[in-house]
## 1
Amino acid sequence: MPAPSSSELLGFPPDARLLIVNNDDFGMYRDVNEAVVRSIEDGIAASCSLMTPCPAAGHAMDLLRDRPELPFGIHLTLVCDLPGHPGGPLTDREKVPSLLDEAGGFYSHDRIPELLARARIEEVETEFRAQIHAALDAGLRPAHLDWHCLADGGREDVFELTAALAGEYGLAVRAWLDPARALLRGRGLPVVDHDFLDSFALDLDGKAAAYARRLRELPPGLSEWAVHPGLGGQESRAVDPDGWRVRRSDYEFLTSPQARELLRQEGITVIGYEVVQRAWTA
C-alpha cells in the first residue's frame, strides 16, 4: 500500500493543490513588520517567521500578542544581511564564540561558509533555544521552525538539531532540499512535494507575472513560497538598500486583487504552518 501523500497527511484529498505562503523576516524592521501583518490580514499570505534577535522583534511580538490567531514560526538566525546594521546573539557572547565574527556579531551573508565551518553544534543549540524562548517567554506560541539565509540549516547536524527541537517543543520544521525532505518523509511527516520558492530568487522585472504563472501552473500536492514583504518606505530604503525593492514587489502582489482571484480560479488552497504543525504533532 503506498504511503499517504503530504496532502492526505494534512487532511486534504491527494489531488489537492496546496500552497504554503509564509512571510519570512518578521521582526527585521518595522516597515517589514507592518507589511507582514497586512499581507496576511489583507492578502494571500497565511503565516510568518519571527526573527527574535532583530531590533524590531519587540514590535513584531506586540503585533502577534494583538493577533493571537496569526500563525508564526521562529526564523532561526545566525546570519546578518543588513549592511551597516550588525546583528548579534540573544545568548551571552562568551557562550557562543564560534557563531560570531571578529567584531562580536553574526557573520554577514557573504561569510556564511566561514560560519558553517566554525559553528559548534552545542553553541548553535544554545542560541536556537534562546531564540525560541524569546517568543515562549513572551507568552507566544510558535507553530514551526525555519532558518534565515541557511537552507535546511546549512549543515546536516544543524537540521537534525532543529528537528529534535521541533519535536521537543511541538513544532513543525521547514524542509527545502531533497535530503531533508526524504528524511522527513521516511518519518511519515508531510513536507513540500515540489521545488521551494524563495522570493529573492525571482527577477524584479515581470515579477507579478511570474507569480501569476506559478499559480496557474501549480501542481497537485504541497508547495511552498517563502516571501519577504515590505512596505518600501523611507526606513526600508535607508536600512535595506539591496532588498527593499524585492520586499515592496512581494507586498504588492500578495495584497493584490489579482492574487486572490487567481487562487479562486485555480482552486488552490493556501495554508499556514499551523496546519503542518497539527500533522507533525498528531
## 2
Amino acid sequence: MTKASSTIKPEEAAHFGALAEDWWDPKGSSAMLHRLNPVRLAYIRDAIDLHFHCDSSLLKPLSGRKALDVGCGAGLLCEPLARLGAHVTGLDAAPENIAVAKAHAEPQRLDIDYRNEAVEDFGGKNFDLVTSLEVIEHVDDPQGFVQGLADALADDGLMIVSTPNRTALSKLLLVDLAEGMGQIPRGTHHHDQFITPDELEKLLGNVGLAVTDTTGLSYSPSKGFTLSDNLSLNYLMTVVRA
C-alpha cells in the first residue's frame, strides 16, 4: 500500500495550516465552507438515516457508533457528527488545524479524538461512518488515499466523500472567480487535480467499494449552495462495501 508520506502533499498541508486560526470565523477565509456545510450536513444526515435505518426525528442517530473524518480541518464536520452521538476521530495533515480543532471542541466537551495523522497509517479501525469532504483533490496519490479510507471502514459501514468536478464550470467558479475575487484563499484549488465522478467511482471500485448515490452541489448567488442533479461544479457520493 502507498505510504502516507507519498499521499499527503506537504505544500497542501502548509497552505491549510496557515488558515487554521481563521477556520471558525464564518466571515473569514473559510467563509465558503461555512456556507457549504449545512447543505453537506443535510445530505450526510439523510444518508445516515437511510443506511442505519434511523428515524429522521432522532437527535442522536449515531449514538454508540464510531465516525472518522479524514482531512477534518478545524472540525467543521467533526463537531456536528459528535452532536449526532458519534465517537468521532478527526485526522488532518496540518498540525495547526488539529490544535485549533482541539481548542474549539474542548470547552464544549465534545467526544472527538483529533490526530495529526494520515489515514494510510490509521486503517483497520472499523468505523461505522467515514467521511472525507473536499480532500481527495489535495492528495498526491488519490488511489492510495482511497485505499486508506476503505481500510478504515467497517464491513457494514457508510462512507461519504465530496470533491469538485473537473469541468470548465468548476475552473471558472472555484478558481478564476472565487480565488480571483478573494472569496477563497489563492492557491486553495488546482483544477488539474480535480476528479470527475467516473474517475472517483473507478478509484473506489478498485478497493472493493460501491457508489450508491451521487448528488451534485450547485451554487447560485440567489440561493447559495443547494443539492442538485447537476454534477458539473461539485458532488457528494454515498459509498458502501461492494
## 3
Amino acid sequence: MDPAAALLEIAALLERERASRYRAKAFRQAAATFQDLPDDVRADPVRLRAAKGIGDSTFEVIRQAQAGEVPRYLIELRGEVEPELTSQLRPLLRGDLHAHTDWSDGTTPIGTMVDAARALGHEYLAITDHSPRLRVARGLSAERLREQIPLVRGASDSGLRVLAGIEVDILEDGALDQEPDLLDELDIVVASVHSKLRMDAAGMTARMLAAVASGRANVLGHCTGRLVQGDRGTRPPSDFDARAVFAACAEHGVAVEINSRPERQDPPDELIAIALDEGCLFSIDSDAHAPGQLSLLDHGALRAERAGVPAARIVTTWGVDRLLAWAE
C-alpha cells in the first residue's frame, strides 16, 4: 500500500468521526512530508524517523505500508468508523454550499478541501469561512475576504466549480456581519446565528426574519443552533417562531439548511416538517471543517429522505448554472 495514501485515508477517517483535529492534521502533515522526501531517505528507517513531521504513529504506518501490509491502525479505523449511510437521495446531490478552510476554523487549505470534493464527485463546492464577529473562529475581515475570493474562484477546473461564499453571522439586530457590497460579490451566502442563542423567542424570530428578508442570504444555516452529541456537549435549540421564519424563507427564496453534522441534526425533524409545509427550498450541506467531513453529506441526505423532502426542492441537487441563477 502506498504510505502517503494510507496516511491520508487515516486522516480522512479521523476527520469524518470528528476526532481531534490535531491527530488528523498530524497524519496529513506526515503524508506531505513523506511525499517530499528523497527516495534514499524514504528507504532509510533511521533518517525517515528523524524527518520533521514524522512521529511514532505515522512512522509505524509508513513502515507497515512499505512492507506491503495494510497498516494496523488503518485496519482498526476502518472497522470502527461508522460506514457511510445509503439513501436514494445521496447520489442526486451535486455539491455542497457550506465548507470551511484554514482561513477561519477549518484545518486545511482551500486546495485540500477542493481536492477532497473532487474525489467525492462533487460538481461544485462553496467555500464559506466565517465572518469577522466570530473571532474565536478567526472570522474573515472584509480585507481578508477580498483576498480570498480570487483564490477560491481560481481553484475551479472543468470538473469542479468552486464558489466564493461566506458563513455570515446574523447579528442581534438581524444585520449580516459583513459589508453589504462585499456580500453582493459572493456566489453563496449562508446566514447563521452563532451568538446569544438563548435570547427570547420574539427577539430571535425578529432577528432571523430580518436576515432572511435582507435580500443577501441564500441559505439559513443550522437554524436552531442545537447540539445533540459530541465532544462539545449538548445544547438546546434556540426558541423562535419556526412557521414565521420558514414562511419568510419561502417568500424570499432562502433555502433552509439540513446540516449533515451528526452532532447537530439541525433542523430537528419537526421543523423540517414545518419548512416543508411552508413551501421552503432546502440545502443539504456538510458544514465540513476538514476534508474527511465532506462525506458527511450522507447523514443529511438520509435525514432529508426520511423526512420526505422532495429532491426537486433541494438546491444542492441542481446543476451549477441553475444554482447560481437562483442564488442571484
